[in-house]
């Protein structure tokens, strides 16, 4: 059985889940919480980050590797990296991974510092082992500080993140201005999937791999939460979710301690 090591709320992990689900590949998702995921990622042959896929005796430690792996199981007409434009698609995907995803994540983690930030832990812990959720809950004031330092979350970096995210959203909207349905024209590619998954902290799709807060809940938590909701690129990301994100096939959680999805 393929194994996918994740932090459940991570949008890079969502990117990997989406590609595996889309290819109809079964896997067992092993969910762990921030920092507690390190030994599991290492043991699976990855580095510090997740997702890590273990499949067919090999380890795939980057979300882009996992998309490639999933693609190799599909015929050309369904591939995320279509022949002829594969390297351009991979290049745009890499730009989203290297910059946009990091900045959209920073905006999300800034929410933990707002009053009521601890309440977000229940969403964050979806499907992770109960003891990990309890540990994060109990150590929240310390863990939040550690995470903020580790991810570089401060008022100045969050403002810069919003500026950079805004520029990427404008670039995406510009690319779509001629009415094309996808970033590369008529075909859904890895660039569309990466952009949609990595903008989830801004768009809050209802069919993300774990339940995210609704817009009403997000707004109640943070009055500025809706800053990008009306942006056409965010509408595009939601359209990708509505039309391309099939229900997760992830049904089997790690029997050694994890809760099945939906129990937390
Ligand atoms: N380029 C990597 C980025 C993955 C990444 O940054 N994952 C985050 C979760 S959102 C992570 O594992 N962070 C933990 C850490 O850096 O220790 C990919 O696309 O797989």
Mean pLDDT: 92
Largest sheet: 4 strands, mixed
Number of strands: 4
Based on CA atoms alone, the radius of gyration comes out at: 18 Å
User: How many separate helices?
Assistant: 12
> What would the CATH topology of the largest domain be?
Glutathione S-transferase Yfyf (Class Pi), Chain A, domain 2
Beginning-to-end CA distance, first to last residue: 25 Å
Pick out the low-confidence regions. 249-264
Described by the principal axes of the CA atoms, the overall outline is globular
Under CATH at level 1, the class of the largest domain stands as Mainly Alpha
Oligomer: single chain
Order of helices and strands: EHEHEEHHHHHHHHHH
Helical percentage:
40-55%
Name every ligand kind in the structure.
glutathione
Structural class: mainly alpha
Q: Give the amount of beta strand, in percent.
A: 5-15%
Strand arrangement, major sheet: 2-1-3-4
Domains, number: 2
Which architecture of the largest domain per CATH? Up-down Bundle
Question: What are the salient characteristics of this protein?
Answer:
single chain, mainly alpha, Glutaredoxin, Glutathione S-transferase Yfyf (Class Pi), Chain A, domain 2, 2 domains, four-stranded mixed β-sheet, binds glutathione
Task: Please summarize what this structure is.
The chain is mainly alpha-helical and 264 residues long. The chain is 50% helix and 6% strand. A 4-stranded mixed β-sheet has the order 2-1-3-4.
